[in-house]
Known about the structure:
Layout: H1 2-27, E1 36-37, H2 45-48, E2 52-57, H3 63-74, E3 79-87, H4 88-98, H5 105-109, H6 120-134, E4 143-148, H7 153-166, H8 168-177, H9 189-204, H10 210-230, H11 234-251, E5 258-264, H12 265-268, H13 280-288, E6 292-308, E7 311-318, E8 332-336, H14 342-348, E9 352-355, H15 363-366, H16 369-372, E10 373-376, H17 378-381, E11 384-391
Parallel strand pairs: 2-5, 2-6, 3-4, 3-5, 6-11
Antiparallel strand pairs: 1-8, 6-7, 8-11, 9-10
Helix pairs in contact: 3-6, 4-7, 7-8, 7-10, 8-9, 9-10, 10-11, 11-13
Protein name: Erythromycin esterase family protein
GO biological process, one term: response to antibiotic
Amino acid sequence: MKRTVIVILACLVLLVGVGIGAHQWVTHPRGLPEAVEFAEADLGESITSARVIGLGEATHGNAEFQQLRLELVHKLDDVGVILLEEDFGRLARIDDWVTGGEGEVHQITREFGFVLNHTQEMADFLEGIREINQHRPPERQIHLVGMDVQRVDASKEIALSWLADHDPQAAAELEDQLSGWDDDHDIDPTTLTPPVEELVAAIESGPADEGQRRAGDAAHALQQHLALEQSSNRSATRAEIMASNLIRTVDAIPQDQQALVFAHNGHLDKSAAAYGGSDLGSALAEHYGDSYRVIGTEFVHNDLISGQQQKRWSVGWTHRTPLRGMYEGTEQGYLEFASASEQNREVLARQVRMGSAGEGFQQWQAWVPWFNSVAMVPLDSYDALVLVSDAAPVRPLR
């Protein structure tokens, strides 16, 4: 019996030792120091010449990933539109402000549908875009567009208000049929489909102008919301909808302008590693080819603010990505893969686990690699990567 117990304990010690050794080997820094601070980096031609440039965020709760957005805009001269992982109607209201509308920035920031965007960092971003637009002619101003359709209030208001100015009777009848349908109350989609289709048709038959285009997009977003609610695969349908809305938006801007898209890493990476199937990034890579470029983000030490709706909490952990070897000596290091050394490209061509946290991320998830990271090949997923050494939490608006 003693020998059996000793053998069992020895095996357990061996297994633990092997596990620790394997973890240390997998997370050991690799590559040669080559990254430069993002603030000082000059973007390469492969990035700056792209029609669509994506900037991901490894988590939804770190300040740096939201701050990098405005920094990227300042590095580019021809940005015409910025698309966000937010609802069309909500972003239309925010776009009114960044292009010169009335209001106070914190009030405007709370127009975002996701509370995770109710932060001082996003308020600073909106102020920065508004300031840029103040020095541009109307035809060169940067517009914000939401490519998501998870909420209905704002889109419904935009569509019905425009129709009320052009066909008051039709608007009144449709408003009555759609009453009770709002962000907090969904109605059986089968009963809503006919009046929403009628709303789309009524707007399309109206006089063509910028207001009609916006109202039509809002009504179309309502149609997409219904399709999302009836889908048997919500994640895939949402990705298809966001890709469709982005492509339509980009097609509408001049050819000499670029589009930026800001969303979670998992949505933007070209290999769709996080979902095991097609997502927004893989769809854009297929549609635009090399004219879609993606800058991913990563971190080592992390303290973030997570949560759902108004409930927020703190989470912290250390993610020992082996990629940190090539970012040694930087705080917010930037490396473009096309110009990386051969040795570093060999590292980037291997599968690694990259940190990832979504909405509602819990502390227990931070302790389990399979719940706080995604296995992917960086070279397949991104064209460049920003690694933040110590990621700080966002500052939620009170």
